Amino acid sequence: MQEHKESKRTVSTLTIGLMWSGIAISVAEIWAGGFIGQAGLVWGLVIIVVGHALGGLVMSAAGCIGTRYGVMSMESTRLVLGNRGSTIPSVLNVLQLVGWATIMLALSGAVGASVGKPLGGVFARKEFWIILIGAGTLAWSLLVGEERTRWLQHILIGGLLALSVVMTFVALNPKYYTLKGPFLKSIPLAKGASLMDFAIVMPISWAPLIADYSRMARSEKGAFWSSFGGYGIMSIWMYVIGLVVFLATGTDDAGANVVGMMGKVGLAIPAMILVFASTVTSDFPDIYSSACSMLNIDRRIKPVYTMWATGLGTIVLALFFDLSKYMHFLELIGAVFVPLFALLLTEYFVVRRQRLPGIDFATGKGLEFTNGFRLTALAVWVLGAASFFTAKKFGFILGGSVTSFAVTAAAHLAVVKFATGGAQPEE
What we know:
Elements lengths: L12 H12 L2 H9 L4 H23 L1 H6 L3 H4 L1 H4 L5 H30 L9 H18 L6 H22 L17 H16 L2 H8 L5 H30 L4 H11 L3 H30 L5 H16 L7 H26 L23 H20 L4 H22 L7
């Protein structure tokens, strides 16, 4: 069994909580909150909270393997897909991370240009903001892991929290936004579950990289609850702002609307700082974790090269990205990664009961399967993805995410029981 070297456990529970809080502060999350406006205020709040609780539990649980065994997120998928099989989600994760970084840059560029319009010149151009924020994100990604810069991370996130309070004051001020009733709408259960997918998928989207950070945590329980609480509280906060702004205005982009409103009421400078800093703290994990995923594919790939390629590539892509594809992007994330982590968590917590005797992630011992692929798990993963799309298409009462997770977990347990005759793994 691979042990986590104690010398690498340098990150405190507070640092992890603050990091995930900063990641959640994003105009992209506010925008996603607006998608749930169709449910009205009361059911919208319920959907946001329940969805984040479900997705957050999966996200934080996915980090437990990293904390206990000192492995990166995509490296941990070897447990269920095999040494070579884990390269498949690694490639898909890199594509997801590039997509996220591109979307957040493109969105922040548009919002920054809107806020900077009264100043004119380069401040009113989205290209300026995309390049500026993209360069800042790349620099932050290269520095944030250093011990000597950790204090700077705390200061930046503290400032973001303060700016979020200012933004919340604007969003909840009836002088600027007046909610339109009815507050309690009647919606079919299947519709509510479908909307909940947009809340579940946001924390799920971070599950493929959470262990890249939790592997350095001093405490497994601390890492679990600080990531769950730090991200969950702030993400719910952002979603609620998006929900309120949507219900007041009907806008397609609640994030741009509320930040733009800050500019109109004399808070242009704080709004610009918020756009810049929130994107930097949300995008840096994408760049860093793309390097971690590439390492799982080939250890010879130098992380710094991947980080530079990802950082510069997303700047170029953001200049041309069509933001109308955002909702479809979220659904694709759900279809791919909900069943993947249903597989992994079922294997780790239920089948193996968190005990991995005879397994070494560093050498791949015990994870060879069939030429490096666990074919049955790959088939179940595909089944889980198909069930997500099927549930969305036909309006299943549980929605895409819950249906996919349940189908994948049940199918994997059935396959394991058939293959082992009901015997438990050796302890």
